[in-house]
Amino acid sequence: MITRFREYLKFLDKELYKMFDAQKPFIKCKEGCAYCCKDGEYPVSELEYVNMMFYYNELEDSLKDRVNENIKNLLEKSRGKMYECPFLIDNKCSIYPARAIICRTFGLISYDDKGKKRIPFCVDLDLNYSVVYDKNTHMITRSAEDGTEPVSYNIDRKFLRSNKIEKEFNIFFGEDKPLVEWLEEEFT
Ligand code: SF4
After folding, report:
1. Which of 61, 83, 164, 184 sits in a 20 to 30 Å window from 137, CA-based?
2. pLDDT tens, 45-69?
3. CA-nearest residue, atom 1 of ligand 1
4. What's the pTM value of the predicted model, to 2 decimals?
5. Which residue range is the domain that position 76 belongs to?
6. What's the rounded Cα separation, in Å, for the pair 162 and 60?
7. Comparing C-alpha atoms, which of 46, 19, 11 is closest to residue 111?
């Protein structure tokens, strides 16, 4: 099943690459920028979590020790719903090839199954889409200088892990929980 899930991730990455590329004039994602990993809930399905832990188990000892320290701190602290992801080390994802679906989609404008548009929060940090964003109205108001339109994509998790995808790739996502709850089960 993991092999088939990785095939799906390859397919998804190709599709996302095209979307990010089409939105290039608005995107400021770059290595070392990790705002999206610092204050989130990170909903993850069981299948995604298993894939993440396969990769984590292969990390070299010194890196794994640092992740373990982060996990320990996260689980010990009284925490709210939002927290920094424990896999983030020196502002880089330590399990990047196995990161969750939500990690792959962050940064684009999306819409959910009800058609509700979501602009990435980093717009308020003068990052993605900020060149066409009006902070007073909280709306995207313009096109890029080269005429590129800001586009919203159907990259909601519900869609990306739907029954249709399960059937097509012969996979089963299983239960969905915030990352911290999976870690709690495994590490306490
Ligand atoms: S798994 Fe990696 S990409 Fe996803 S939130 Fe954690 S550090 Fe960031």
Report:
1. 83
2. 999 999 999 999 999 999 999 999 9
3. 99
4. 0.92
5. 2-187
6. 34
7. 19
